[in-house]
Amino acid sequence: MPIETCTAQVELIKNLTHDVRQLDLRLIEPRTIAFKPGQFVSFEMPHPRTGHLVTRAYSIASQPSRSDLITLLFNQVPGGPGSSLLFDLKAGEKTQFKGPAGHFYLREDPGRELLFIASGTGIAPIRSMLLANTERPNPRPATLFWGLRSQRDLYYQRELAGLIGQTPTFTAITTLSRPEPGWSGESGRVLRLIEERIASVKNLAVYLCGNSAMITDSMHLLQKKGLCPIYREKYYDDIGSPED
Ligand SMILES: NC(=O)c1ccc[n+]([C@@H]2O[C@H](COP(=O)([O-])OP(=O)(O)OC[C@H]3O[C@@H](n4cnc5c(N)ncnc54)[C@H](OP(=O)(O)O)[C@@H]3O)[C@@H](O)[C@H]2O)c1
User: Fold this and answer.
1) Residue 232 CB less than 6 A away from ligand 1
2) Residue with the nearest Cα to atom 47 of ligand 1?
3) Could you tell me if residue 106 is inside a domain?
4) Nearest C-alpha neighbor of 135 from the set 97, 167, 111
5) Number of domains into which the chain is organized
6) 3-class DSSP state for residue 63?
């Protein structure tokens, strides 16, 4: 799949929480885009502080079968060039990006069950993989562990319940690290779920996406439980490095 420059129009803006926004972009040129579930697109923009051009990558959160539209998810990062660019886009406005790119995508790994582990907006590429898996004639048994902070950070819960209803071999657990009183679901970080619920990784293919400490800590835990393919996607934060 070659990397293309794409023009798209903002079709839908949805505030999922107080600081997470979903953006649906309809492709104009080309009209469709072929990508693998888990890949990303990137935007170029001037850094608000230095004026230098910087690039920011966002995973495609929608599934490849919807090739005329891509969904992106982002946190609003104060002063972050990428999220500022995306956050300022209005419905109907046009934007350009390059893509698809990236090696974090759903593999075949015949015979292996899928374990997805995400923190925060790291759910974006994993959502694409989950939707693609559900559309397969025989979806692979899959488990999602997703770590968020508190009740006000929850989103996509109804959608996940819908996927569970559609695919009996799919399990999703959202765990809150800082729940407010009244939460009856799982609490703690995703690491707790790995420790308590995964006895062996022998028959698994694992996909990790989110903040880098979560990825490193999860890798250590998983490696203690045996050998299996582990795929991961780390994003730098939108603040940018000092030389940006
Ligand atoms: N938007 C996209 O397309 C996209 C795609 C791929 C990746 N990403 C990246 O995904 C990341 C999401 O940020 P975030 O995960 O930090 O979200 P967050 O909303 O800041 O945190 C989510 C959860 O991660 C937990 N956490 C922090 N350190 C952890 C660790 N060492 N082990 C386990 N859990 C840990 C937090 O627990 P505590 O409350 O205890 O801190 C919290 O419950 C960002 O770095 C973003 O760049 C985004």
Assistant:
1) no
2) 235
3) no
4) 167
5) 2
6) coil
